[in-house]
Amino acid sequence: MVERQVRKRVGVVMGGSSGERDVSLRSGAAVAEALEARGYDVVRITLGDRFGAELCATLQRARLDAAFLALHGRLGEDGCVQGVLELAQVPYTGSSVLASALAMDKLKAKEMFRLHNVPTPPYYTVGANQDLEELDAVHGSFGFPVIVKPRGEGSSLGVTKAGSLEELKSALALAFEFDDAAIVERFVAGTEVNVGILDGKVLGAIEIVPKKGLYDYEAKYTPGMTEYHMPARLPPTRYRGVLNLAERAAQALGCTGAVRVDLLVTGGENEYVLEVNTLPGMTQTSLLPKIAEAAGYEFGDLCEAILASARLHQPVRRRAPAASELRLSERGQAEKRLRLVKSAI
Protein backbone atom coordinates (compact mmCIF):
# COMPACT_ATOMS: atom_id res chain seq x y z
CA MET A 1 0.00 0.00 0.00
CA VAL A 2 1.25 3.48 -0.90
CA GLU A 3 1.04 6.05 1.90
CA ARG A 4 -0.04 9.56 0.96
CA GLN A 5 0.45 12.50 3.26
CA VAL A 6 -1.79 15.05 1.57
CA ARG A 7 -4.96 14.99 -0.49
CA LYS A 8 -3.95 15.62 -4.10
CA ARG A 9 -5.81 17.21 -6.97
CA VAL A 10 -4.99 14.87 -9.83
CA GLY A 11 -5.70 15.30 -13.52
CA VAL A 12 -6.21 11.97 -15.30
CA VAL A 13 -5.34 12.75 -18.91
CA MET A 14 -6.90 10.46 -21.53
CA GLY A 15 -8.18 10.36 -25.11
CA GLY A 16 -6.01 12.12 -27.65
CA SER A 17 -5.90 11.70 -31.39
CA SER A 18 -3.98 8.46 -31.93
CA GLY A 19 -5.36 5.12 -33.10
CA GLU A 20 -5.29 4.06 -29.45
CA ARG A 21 -7.82 6.66 -28.32
CA ASP A 22 -10.46 4.11 -27.27
CA VAL A 23 -7.95 2.14 -25.20
CA SER A 24 -6.78 5.37 -23.58
CA LEU A 25 -10.33 6.31 -22.62
CA ARG A 26 -10.81 2.91 -20.98
CA SER A 27 -7.49 3.19 -19.15
CA GLY A 28 -8.31 6.72 -17.97
CA ALA A 29 -11.76 5.81 -16.72
CA ALA A 30 -10.40 2.86 -14.72
CA VAL A 31 -7.61 4.96 -13.17
CA ALA A 32 -9.94 7.87 -12.33
CA GLU A 33 -12.42 5.57 -10.58
CA ALA A 34 -9.65 3.88 -8.58
CA LEU A 35 -8.14 7.18 -7.41
CA GLU A 36 -11.54 8.68 -6.54
CA ALA A 37 -12.31 5.60 -4.45
CA ARG A 38 -9.16 6.37 -2.45
CA GLY A 39 -10.10 9.97 -1.75
CA TYR A 40 -8.25 11.86 -4.47
CA ASP A 41 -9.77 14.95 -6.03
CA VAL A 42 -9.76 13.74 -9.63
CA VAL A 43 -10.20 15.93 -12.71
CA ARG A 44 -10.93 13.92 -15.85
CA ILE A 45 -9.14 15.59 -18.79
CA THR A 46 -10.33 14.10 -22.08
CA LEU A 47 -8.31 15.40 -25.03
CA GLY A 48 -9.65 15.71 -28.56
CA ASP A 49 -8.00 15.69 -31.98
CA ARG A 50 -6.41 19.15 -31.66
CA PHE A 51 -5.49 19.37 -28.03
CA GLY A 52 -2.42 21.62 -27.74
CA ALA A 53 -4.17 24.83 -26.72
CA GLU A 54 -6.96 22.80 -25.11
CA LEU A 55 -4.53 21.09 -22.73
CA CYS A 56 -2.78 24.34 -21.80
CA ALA A 57 -6.07 26.06 -20.99
CA THR A 58 -7.29 23.07 -18.98
CA LEU A 59 -4.07 22.95 -16.97
CA GLN A 60 -4.39 26.64 -16.12
CA ARG A 61 -7.95 26.22 -14.88
CA ALA A 62 -7.47 22.92 -13.06
CA ARG A 63 -4.55 23.92 -10.80
CA LEU A 64 -3.35 20.34 -10.56
CA ASP A 65 -0.90 18.88 -8.09
CA ALA A 66 -0.04 16.14 -10.59
CA ALA A 67 -1.11 14.66 -13.93
CA PHE A 68 -1.70 10.92 -14.33
CA LEU A 69 -1.11 10.16 -18.00
CA ALA A 70 -3.44 7.50 -19.35
CA LEU A 71 -2.63 8.40 -22.95
CA HIS A 72 -1.39 5.92 -25.54
CA GLY A 73 0.19 6.33 -28.95
CA ARG A 74 1.27 9.30 -30.99
CA LEU A 75 1.25 12.77 -29.36
CA GLY A 76 0.36 11.27 -25.99
CA GLU A 77 3.10 8.73 -25.39
CA ASP A 78 5.89 10.17 -27.53
CA GLY A 79 6.99 13.13 -25.41
CA CYS A 80 4.68 15.83 -26.79
CA VAL A 81 2.26 16.05 -23.86
CA GLN A 82 5.17 15.48 -21.50
CA GLY A 83 6.80 18.61 -22.93
CA VAL A 84 3.66 20.67 -22.36
CA LEU A 85 3.54 19.50 -18.73
CA GLU A 86 7.21 20.38 -18.23
CA LEU A 87 6.50 23.91 -19.47
CA ALA A 88 3.41 24.15 -17.27
CA GLN A 89 5.41 22.87 -14.28
CA VAL A 90 2.88 20.11 -13.57
CA PRO A 91 4.49 16.86 -12.32
CA TYR A 92 3.40 13.89 -14.43
CA THR A 93 3.57 10.12 -14.42
CA GLY A 94 5.71 8.13 -16.81
CA SER A 95 9.04 8.87 -18.42
CA SER A 96 10.75 12.08 -19.48
CA VAL A 97 10.27 13.82 -22.82
CA LEU A 98 13.41 12.22 -24.26
CA ALA A 99 12.80 8.69 -22.95
CA SER A 100 9.17 8.81 -24.12
CA ALA A 101 10.22 9.90 -27.61
CA LEU A 102 12.92 7.23 -27.88
CA ALA A 103 10.65 4.43 -26.72
CA MET A 104 7.84 5.42 -29.09
CA ASP A 105 10.16 5.57 -32.11
CA LYS A 106 10.84 1.89 -32.86
CA LEU A 107 13.88 2.69 -35.01
CA LYS A 108 15.57 4.91 -32.42
CA ALA A 109 14.72 2.43 -29.66
CA LYS A 110 16.38 -0.38 -31.59
CA GLU A 111 19.43 1.77 -32.21
CA MET A 112 19.70 2.43 -28.48
CA PHE A 113 19.27 -1.28 -27.75
CA ARG A 114 22.14 -2.12 -30.07
CA LEU A 115 24.31 0.60 -28.52
CA HIS A 116 23.72 -0.93 -25.08
CA ASN A 117 24.09 -4.57 -26.22
CA VAL A 118 20.42 -5.35 -25.68
CA PRO A 119 19.47 -8.07 -28.20
CA THR A 120 16.64 -7.17 -30.59
CA PRO A 121 15.52 -8.91 -33.82
CA PRO A 122 17.30 -7.84 -37.05
CA TYR A 123 15.45 -5.17 -39.01
CA TYR A 124 15.49 -2.54 -41.72
CA THR A 125 13.26 0.45 -42.45
CA VAL A 126 11.15 1.40 -45.47
CA GLY A 127 9.78 4.88 -46.12
CA ALA A 128 6.38 5.61 -47.60
CA ASN A 129 8.05 7.53 -50.44
CA GLN A 130 10.16 4.54 -51.52
CA ASP A 131 9.25 2.71 -54.71
CA LEU A 132 7.85 -0.66 -53.65
CA GLU A 133 8.74 -2.05 -57.08
CA GLU A 134 12.35 -1.95 -55.89
CA LEU A 135 11.46 -3.77 -52.69
CA ASP A 136 12.95 -7.05 -53.90
CA ALA A 137 16.41 -5.45 -54.10
CA VAL A 138 15.96 -3.72 -50.74
CA HIS A 139 14.82 -6.90 -49.01
CA GLY A 140 17.58 -8.94 -50.63
CA SER A 141 18.50 -12.03 -48.65
CA PHE A 142 16.76 -10.86 -45.47
CA GLY A 143 14.40 -13.82 -45.74
CA PHE A 144 10.81 -14.59 -44.76
CA PRO A 145 8.66 -14.52 -42.73
CA VAL A 146 8.94 -10.98 -41.38
CA ILE A 147 6.92 -8.74 -39.07
CA VAL A 148 6.01 -5.30 -40.43
CA LYS A 149 5.26 -2.45 -38.00
CA PRO A 150 4.61 1.28 -38.29
CA ARG A 151 7.66 3.07 -36.94
CA GLY A 152 5.80 5.20 -34.42
CA GLU A 153 2.58 3.47 -33.36
CA GLY A 154 1.65 1.30 -30.40
CA SER A 155 -0.84 -1.42 -29.40
CA SER A 156 0.21 -3.48 -32.44
CA LEU A 157 -1.76 -1.18 -34.76
CA GLY A 158 -0.83 -1.85 -38.37
CA VAL A 159 1.31 -4.88 -37.47
CA THR A 160 1.34 -7.72 -40.00
CA LYS A 161 3.22 -10.96 -40.55
CA ALA A 162 4.39 -11.40 -44.17
CA GLY A 163 5.65 -14.61 -45.77
CA SER A 164 6.35 -13.42 -49.31
CA LEU A 165 7.27 -10.33 -51.29
CA GLU A 166 3.65 -9.68 -52.27
CA GLU A 167 2.51 -10.03 -48.68
CA LEU A 168 5.32 -7.70 -47.64
CA LYS A 169 4.08 -5.02 -50.05
CA SER A 170 0.55 -5.33 -48.67
CA ALA A 171 1.85 -5.20 -45.10
CA LEU A 172 3.84 -2.06 -45.84
CA ALA A 173 0.79 -0.42 -47.42
CA LEU A 174 -1.14 -1.07 -44.19
CA ALA A 175 1.73 0.23 -42.03
CA PHE A 176 1.89 3.42 -44.10
CA GLU A 177 -1.72 4.15 -43.14
CA PHE A 178 -0.38 4.76 -39.62
CA ASP A 179 3.07 6.21 -40.28
CA ASP A 180 5.36 7.52 -43.01
CA ALA A 181 7.93 4.82 -42.21
CA ALA A 182 7.79 1.14 -41.33
CA ILE A 183 10.06 -1.35 -39.59
CA VAL A 184 10.58 -4.71 -41.31
CA GLU A 185 11.70 -7.09 -38.58
CA ARG A 186 12.85 -10.68 -38.93
CA PHE A 187 10.25 -13.05 -37.53
CA VAL A 188 11.55 -14.85 -34.46
CA ALA A 189 9.67 -17.98 -33.40
CA GLY A 190 9.28 -17.88 -29.65
CA THR A 191 7.11 -17.15 -26.64
CA GLU A 192 6.06 -13.57 -26.04
CA VAL A 193 6.79 -12.46 -22.49
CA ASN A 194 6.07 -9.06 -20.96
CA VAL A 195 7.89 -7.69 -17.92
CA GLY A 196 6.48 -5.03 -15.60
CA ILE A 197 8.73 -2.48 -13.92
CA LEU A 198 7.68 0.12 -11.34
CA ASP A 199 10.07 2.86 -10.21
CA GLY A 200 13.05 0.75 -11.24
CA LYS A 201 11.77 -2.35 -9.41
CA VAL A 202 11.07 -5.37 -11.61
CA LEU A 203 7.64 -6.79 -10.66
CA GLY A 204 7.60 -9.99 -12.69
CA ALA A 205 7.01 -11.49 -16.14
CA ILE A 206 3.79 -12.73 -17.76
CA GLU A 207 3.59 -15.16 -20.68
CA ILE A 208 1.19 -14.38 -23.53
CA VAL A 209 -0.43 -17.05 -25.71
CA PRO A 210 -2.67 -15.46 -28.38
CA LYS A 211 -5.21 -17.90 -29.81
CA LYS A 212 -4.64 -16.65 -33.36
CA GLY A 213 -0.86 -16.90 -33.08
CA LEU A 214 -0.15 -13.19 -33.54
CA TYR A 215 -0.54 -10.81 -30.61
CA ASP A 216 -2.22 -8.04 -32.59
CA TYR A 217 -4.64 -5.28 -31.58
CA GLU A 218 -7.64 -7.65 -31.50
CA ALA A 219 -5.78 -10.21 -29.38
CA LYS A 220 -4.65 -7.49 -26.95
CA TYR A 221 -8.00 -5.89 -26.25
CA THR A 222 -10.65 -8.57 -26.85
CA PRO A 223 -11.38 -10.65 -23.74
CA GLY A 224 -10.91 -14.37 -24.41
CA MET A 225 -8.61 -13.94 -27.42
CA THR A 226 -5.42 -14.52 -25.41
CA GLU A 227 -4.29 -16.82 -22.61
CA TYR A 228 -2.02 -15.48 -19.89
CA HIS A 229 0.35 -17.35 -17.61
CA MET A 230 1.62 -15.48 -14.57
CA PRO A 231 4.43 -16.02 -13.85
CA ALA A 232 5.80 -16.92 -17.28
CA ARG A 233 6.47 -20.65 -17.61
CA LEU A 234 10.26 -20.47 -17.67
CA PRO A 235 12.98 -22.23 -15.66
CA PRO A 236 14.03 -20.09 -12.65
CA THR A 237 17.46 -19.18 -14.04
CA ARG A 238 16.02 -18.15 -17.39
CA TYR A 239 13.18 -16.26 -15.73
CA ARG A 240 15.71 -14.16 -13.81
CA GLY A 241 17.64 -13.58 -17.05
CA VAL A 242 14.49 -12.27 -18.77
CA LEU A 243 13.82 -9.87 -15.88
CA ASN A 244 17.40 -8.62 -16.04
CA LEU A 245 17.22 -8.09 -19.80
CA ALA A 246 13.98 -6.11 -19.46
CA GLU A 247 15.58 -3.92 -16.81
CA ARG A 248 18.56 -3.25 -19.09
CA ALA A 249 16.25 -2.32 -21.98
CA ALA A 250 14.36 0.22 -19.86
CA GLN A 251 17.63 1.67 -18.60
CA ALA A 252 18.99 1.95 -22.16
CA LEU A 253 16.15 4.34 -23.00
CA GLY A 254 16.18 6.13 -19.64
CA CYS A 255 12.62 5.11 -18.75
CA THR A 256 11.13 5.80 -15.31
CA GLY A 257 7.84 5.25 -13.49
CA ALA A 258 5.66 2.38 -14.70
CA VAL A 259 7.16 0.53 -17.66
CA ARG A 260 6.28 -2.62 -19.60
CA VAL A 261 8.95 -4.36 -21.68
CA ASP A 262 7.90 -6.76 -24.46
CA LEU A 263 10.27 -9.64 -25.23
CA LEU A 264 10.49 -12.88 -27.21
CA VAL A 265 11.92 -15.99 -25.57
CA THR A 266 13.05 -18.70 -28.01
CA GLY A 267 13.55 -22.42 -27.61
CA GLY A 268 17.21 -21.88 -28.48
CA GLU A 269 18.00 -20.10 -25.21
CA ASN A 270 17.87 -16.62 -26.78
CA GLU A 271 15.85 -13.61 -25.71
CA TYR A 272 15.05 -10.52 -27.79
CA VAL A 273 13.56 -7.19 -26.73
CA LEU A 274 10.79 -6.01 -29.02
CA GLU A 275 9.89 -2.67 -27.43
CA VAL A 276 9.48 -0.70 -24.22
CA ASN A 277 6.16 0.92 -23.30
CA THR A 278 6.39 4.06 -21.17
CA LEU A 279 2.61 4.40 -20.57
CA PRO A 280 1.32 0.82 -20.30
CA GLY A 281 -2.41 0.18 -20.65
CA MET A 282 -4.57 0.15 -17.54
CA THR A 283 -7.67 -1.65 -18.88
CA GLN A 284 -9.19 -4.94 -17.68
CA THR A 285 -7.14 -6.86 -20.26
CA SER A 286 -3.91 -4.87 -19.81
CA LEU A 287 -0.76 -6.67 -18.79
CA LEU A 288 0.82 -4.34 -16.24
CA PRO A 289 -2.12 -4.63 -13.79
CA LYS A 290 -1.97 -8.44 -14.13
CA ILE A 291 1.76 -8.47 -13.38
CA ALA A 292 1.37 -6.00 -10.51
CA GLU A 293 -1.47 -8.02 -8.96
CA ALA A 294 0.79 -11.08 -8.78
CA ALA A 295 3.40 -8.88 -7.08
CA GLY A 296 0.90 -7.86 -4.39
CA TYR A 297 -0.57 -4.65 -5.84
CA GLU A 298 -4.32 -4.32 -6.08
CA PHE A 299 -5.38 -2.07 -8.95
CA GLY A 300 -5.87 0.90 -6.64
CA ASP A 301 -2.46 0.27 -5.06
CA LEU A 302 -0.88 0.26 -8.50
CA CYS A 303 -2.56 3.54 -9.48
CA GLU A 304 -1.38 5.19 -6.25
CA ALA A 305 2.16 3.87 -6.71
CA ILE A 306 2.30 5.23 -10.26
CA LEU A 307 0.90 8.57 -9.08
CA ALA A 308 3.50 8.72 -6.31
CA SER A 309 6.23 8.66 -8.98
CA ALA A 310 4.86 11.75 -10.78
CA ARG A 311 7.53 14.39 -11.21
CA LEU A 312 9.17 16.91 -13.51
CA HIS A 313 12.26 15.67 -15.32
CA GLN A 314 14.03 18.87 -16.31
CA PRO A 315 17.16 19.57 -14.23
CA VAL A 316 16.72 22.02 -11.37
CA ARG A 317 19.17 24.93 -11.12
CA ARG A 318 21.19 24.50 -7.93
CA ARG A 319 21.43 28.23 -7.28
CA ALA A 320 19.92 31.40 -8.66
CA PRO A 321 22.27 33.23 -11.05
CA ALA A 322 23.72 36.51 -9.81
CA ALA A 323 22.57 39.73 -11.41
CA SER A 324 25.96 40.12 -13.09
CA GLU A 325 25.63 36.66 -14.62
CA LEU A 326 22.18 37.50 -15.94
CA ARG A 327 23.49 40.69 -17.53
CA LEU A 328 26.36 38.79 -19.16
CA SER A 329 23.95 36.13 -20.42
CA GLU A 330 21.55 38.72 -21.83
CA ARG A 331 24.43 40.58 -23.50
CA GLY A 332 25.76 37.32 -24.97
CA GLN A 333 22.35 36.44 -26.38
CA ALA A 334 21.96 39.91 -27.87
CA GLU A 335 25.40 39.72 -29.50
CA LYS A 336 24.56 36.27 -30.89
CA ARG A 337 21.30 37.56 -32.42
CA LEU A 338 23.19 40.52 -33.91
CA ARG A 339 25.74 38.19 -35.53
CA LEU A 340 22.94 36.07 -37.01
CA VAL A 341 21.22 39.15 -38.44
CA LYS A 342 24.50 40.42 -39.94
CA SER A 343 25.25 37.05 -41.53
CA ALA A 344 21.81 37.00 -43.13
CA ILE A 345 22.25 40.41 -44.77
Which helices and strands occur, and which strands form pairs?
Blueprint: E1 9-15, H1 21-37, E2 41-47, H2 52-62, E3 66-69, H3 80-88, H4 97-104, H5 106-115, E4 123-127, H6 135-139, E5 146-150, E6 160-162, H7 165-175, E7 181-186, E8 191-198, E9 201-210, H8 217-221, E10 226-229, H9 236-253, E11 258-265, E12 271-277, H10 287-294, H11 299-308, H12 323-344
Parallel strand pairs: 1-2, 1-3
Antiparallel strand pairs: 4-7, 5-6, 5-7, 8-9, 8-11, 9-10, 11-12
Helix pairs in contact: 1-11
Structure description:
Its main location: cytoplasm. Its EC number is 6.3.2.4. Its cofactor is Mg(2+); Mn(2+). Pathway: Cell wall biogenesis; peptidoglycan biosynthesis. It is built from twelve helices and twelve strands. The protein has about 350 residues and is of the alpha+beta class. The chain folds into three domains: about 90 residues, Rossmann fold, CATH 3.40.50; about 60 residues, Dna Ligase, domain 1; about 110 residues, 2-Layer Sandwich (D-amino Acid Aminotransferase, Chain A, domain 1). The protein has a five-stranded antiparallel sheet with strand order 10-9-8-11-12. Strands 4-7-5-6 form a four-stranded antiparallel sheet, covered by helices on one side. A three-stranded parallel sheet has the order 2-1-3, sandwiched between helices. α1 crosses α11. The protein is globular.
N- to C-terminal separation?
A: 64 Å
How many separate domains?
A: 3
* Percentage of residues in DSSP E strands: 15-25%
By secondary-structure content and strand pairing, the structural class works out as alpha+beta
Strand order, sheet with most strands: 10-9-8-11-12
Q: How many strand units?
A: 12
What is the number of helical segments per DSSP (H or I, 4+ residues)? 12
Order of helices and strands: EHEHEHHHEHEEHEEEHEHEEHHH
